[in-house]
Amino acid sequence: MRETVITTQTIANPKTHYGDARASTRHFITQRVTGGFNVVFLALLLFVVVRLAGQDRADVVALLANWYIGVPLAVLIAIAAVHMRNGMRDTLEDYMHGRIYSLAMMLNTLFCLAVALVGAGSVLKIVFWG
């Protein structure tokens, strides 16, 4: 497969199609929505951090065992992982190209998936199984 050379003239010309418009719009909206949810859930996170200041492990487990605290924190971890993946995608698109970009995006996705599964899974384990 022949790779197309993209120049600044190609990008500056409004009649050329550069990139996938649908995917870019979805990425833009996802980044804004996850950012908004992160701001909303930040209030809950701050409440938990202030509430648990100076407490021991038993108090932490007791607070997180409440479903109305633990489930939103698990959702926050998952949403933050999606936001993190999208943010790193922007950086990777700027500095990497070709196969190394594909490899870096795959590793980025796997890392963010692992963070979301381990983080949210750990909180949900406390909520549902103590």
From TrEMBL:
It is a multi-pass membrane protein. It comes from the Bacteria. It is found in: Membrane. GO terms for molecular function: heme binding; metal ion binding. It holds the Pfam family Sdh_cyt. The chain crosses the membrane at residues 35-54, 60-82, 103-128. Keywords: Electron transport, Heme, Iron, Membrane, Metal-binding, Transmembrane, Transmembrane helix, Transport, Tricarboxylic acid cycle. Its cofactor is heme. InterPro entries: SQR/QFR_C/D, Succ_DH_anchor, SuccDH_FuR_B_TM-su. One of its GO terms (cellular component) is membrane. Pathway: Carbohydrate metabolism; tricarboxylic acid cycle. Gene3D superfamilies: Fumarate reductase/succinate dehydrogenase, transmembrane subunit (1.20.1300.10). GO terms for biological process: tricarboxylic acid cycle. Its main location: membrane. Part of an enzyme complex containing four subunits: a flavoprotein, an iron-sulfur protein, plus two membrane-anchoring proteins, SdhC and SdhD. Membrane-anchoring subunit of succinate dehydrogenase (SDH). This is Succinate dehydrogenase hydrophobic membrane anchor subunit. It comes from Devosia lucknowensis.
